[in-house]
Specification:
The protein is mainly α and about 130 residues long. It is built from seven helices and no strands. It has one domain.
């Protein structure tokens, strides 16, 4: 929804939203979709699905976002007033998942520095995108 509202704002000429910021947001979310698809595909492959089927299911798991973007652009006038509530809920859910699941999992085992390095690299990529496109 955030990508849809960003593009709708840019298309409608909102002074606070530029097309480059909408593209930066879309790229950031697109980059996040790669590991998300892998999380779906890899267990399916390990359970005996073919590579093509596992890849297909991983891809389908991410197809929701472009569809939601188009719907949000079409319904911008209805979505914009309630968008802060949607984004607050999404942010809270992501913070919960990170604190409850990802941080403890990343810090268990022998190679805890790999998770920390991964977070640092992700942060650097997003800052580069923000500065270059924002």
């Amino acid at each position: 929804m955030a990508v849809g509202v960003a593009f709708a704002g840019a298309l409608l000429g909102n002074a606070g939203i530029t097309m480059s910021s909408a593209i930066a947001l879309a790229i950031g979310i697109g980059i996040q979709n790669f590991p998300e698809g892998a999380i779906i595909s890899m267990p399916l492959k390990n359970e005996g699905k073919s590579k093509i089927k596992a890849f297909g299911y991983g891809t389908l798991s991410g197809i929701v976002e472009p569809i939601a973007t188009l719907i949000t652009i079409a319904l911008t006038n209805l979505v914009v007033p309630i968008l802060p509530y949607f984004l607050s809920f999404a942010a809270g859910a992501m913070i919960y998942v990170v604190v409850e699941e990802l941080i403890p999992e990343a810090q268990s085992g022998k190679h805890t520095e790999i998770g920390t390095i991964g977070v640092s690299i992700g942060f650097i990529i997003m800052m580069i995108l923000d500065v270059a496109l924002g």
